[in-house]
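anyone seen this seq b4? input:
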Amino acid sequence: MVKKTLLASSILLFTISTYLSAQPLADSIKKKLESFLAPWNMENSPGSSVGIIKNDSLIFVQSVGMANLEYNARNTPTTNFNIGSMAKQFTAFGIFLLEKEKKLFLHEDVRKYLPWLPKFEYKITLSDLIYHTSGLRDYLILLQISGTRLEDIVTQEHVLKLISKQQRLNSIPGEKYAYSNSNYVLLAEVIQKVSGQKFRLFMDSAIFRPLGMTNSYFEDNYSSVHQQRSYSYERIDSTHFRNIPLNYSVVGAGGMYSNVTDLAKWTTNFGTNRVWDKKTLQKLTTTVSLKNGRTLISAAGLVVQPYMGWRQYYFSGMDGGYRSFQNYFPDLRTGVIILSNLTDNLYNNNFPYGSTNILIPKDTTHWELMPRTWADSASAKINNPREYMRFVGDFISDEGGYPLSFKLIEDKMNVIVNGQTNLMGRIQGDTFMTINSYQYRYVFNKSKTDTTITILAQDDSYTLRKLAKNPKSLNELQESFVGKYYCEELDCIYSISLKDGKLLLQNNKYDDVNLNIIGVDHLGTNNWWMNHLSFFRKDGSVTGFEVNTGRVMHLNFKKITSNAKQIFRD
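predicted toks r here
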């Protein structure tokens, strides 16, 4: 016991001395970073932890706000946060370590290791899972549609059973990038099968312990008790919050808890190669190409995209009320890690790249690599609004299923997503982005005769086409949709009813939601997980619909009742 205590003390002293010996940040930079954190540096608010890496050393750590409001526990540099999808890079690296030992090969059919997986028309490889080219539907959205709320108790077995009942893919494997959490849940199962260990134990022994990440772990039992773990929160108003419980025991795609000091050890290892060889580590940041030859910017659980003219590895995550962000610039040996336990903390005031901009100089020798990342309110005013009038209205994407509306308000273009209106700013020419967002660019195709808008996403593009309004009467349209609909793959039923002249989508697990007619046989809702229903007809009568909502496509619901009994009037 004495030896263990002495060893622990030695490690702690070594760690502290390492931080102290690193060159500190200039006071001016430190004050700017602290100003970003100031709004959450309160005893009545959840907060954040931020870590700054320079020359592959963690030289700045600050934690603000509360880890737990009920017990008055503050966030500290060793407070653990759920890091959401940032966990995927660790899962991918677990696969690469097994590949290095020749215990598996990336080109192999995943059914070799998971024979229970449905035998789809096309083979899905381990590589397809890693790079999100499998075409598998996202289990998180499938859960929501099935009636399982994200706050319900969800186990790994629950998710695997859901995936095992799928009959179709979103796309042909290898042909399209489509982010899906299902991919990494299956990778965790492969690691467990090949290693002969529980996934949690393998990751601890193979990755966390070699790096000294002693406070990091994958949570495979939602009821476990852990010290120094924060709670996740959502804002009600400026001084009130609600707890968002995470009753998850699902690992691989997420489910990992860590803190800034542990994550700094992982991040700096990209530059120091202190643990593992450079060749193995580079697999995480190596991109692949689709069958059409297009090279992705998404690597193995990371995105490899230049910023300010410099090479950058970055990713972010969210789960419940947790938000996380990391980036690392290998040529500068510099990075930022931000963890938060409040939904609106991370991107308020553009914290991630606001702090990055303080640290990273512009590299004018590679200026062509520096895409403009942010649109601001100064770029929102359109000088020639009449030229954009034909783009006002409802649009749909056949490839991604996204229903979007565009509206001009005071000569400024706005995009409406799931009922939320977002102001847009011009980047260049006819290309716009929403203010303070970096995920999508919208290109208004003014040179084309048809009215289309191209969405440029991270690793894909989609064409939005304007929906024609149905010439039939509203009542005639509405009554044709009324009835009950059954999905065999999810074993769930939804009803569409007509009440007080409005269509309602109903399910026993959710409140009724309004259905909006957005085009001929296209209905939309404000539920992000079921926002587009595309209807089928036979001999003029509706026979069913399919859900097309980005990460879940072609999920079929068959109409099982006539409409007469489903019409309600006061």
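The first strand starts at residue 48 and ends at 54. DSSP finds twelve helices and 32 strands in the chain. kinda curious what u guys think
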